[in-house]
Design brief:
The protein is mainly alpha-helical and about 120 residues long. It has 2 domains: about 45 residues, no CATH class; about 70 residues, Winged helix-like DNA-binding domain superfamily/Winged helix DNA-binding domain (Arc Repressor Mutant, subunit A), CATH 1.10.10. It is about 55% helix and about 10% strand. It is built from 5 helices and 4 strands. The strands form 2 sheets. A two-stranded antiparallel sheet has the order 1-2. β1 and β2 form a beta hairpin. α4 packs across α5. The N and C termini lie far apart (about 50 Å). About 10% of the residues are buried.
């Protein structure tokens, strides 16, 4: 490969690399989930995730204010436990459990699979 060809290839790679950085920054500034890069032995795949769980969207699904607050908390922290739900919403364990049941039936949250003190919910 001649020097001109090598320079051309390197310029393309550099441009692609800076393009990915621009995409990451644009997604972050727009409040979208982080770009996921899945490499393989020959190429890589860029995964763009769309966050549909806005407060307006959740209210339109018929969620109450406690449920919306909990989903926003899960988006920020990654998961929520029954105790945390009770704390942020100042409600009883029974109310929290009923609200979680509704959120799981609507397919917004799912249970961790654990039961008891170690259980939690994720989007």
């Amino acid at each position: 490969m001649g020097m001109d060809t090598l320079s051309f290839v390197l310029a393309i790679v550099e441009k692609a690399g800076s393009g990915i950085e621009r995409m990451i920054n644009a997604l972050k500034s727009a409040g979208f989930p982080e770009l996921k890069i899945e490499p393989s032995h020959l190429d890589f795949t860029l995964l763009f995730m769309k966050d549909i769980y806005t407060e307006e969207y959740l209210r339109n699904l018929g969620l109450n204010a406690r449920q919306v607050k909990a989903v926003m908390d899960v988006k920020k922290r990654g998961r929520i436990r029954n105790r945390k739900y009770q704390e942020i919403n100042r409600c009883s364990q029974n109310t929290a459990s009923n609200n979680f049941k509704d959120l799981t039936q609507k397919g917004i949250l799912k249970e961790s699979g654990k039961k008891g003190a170690g259980s939690y919910y994720v989007i």
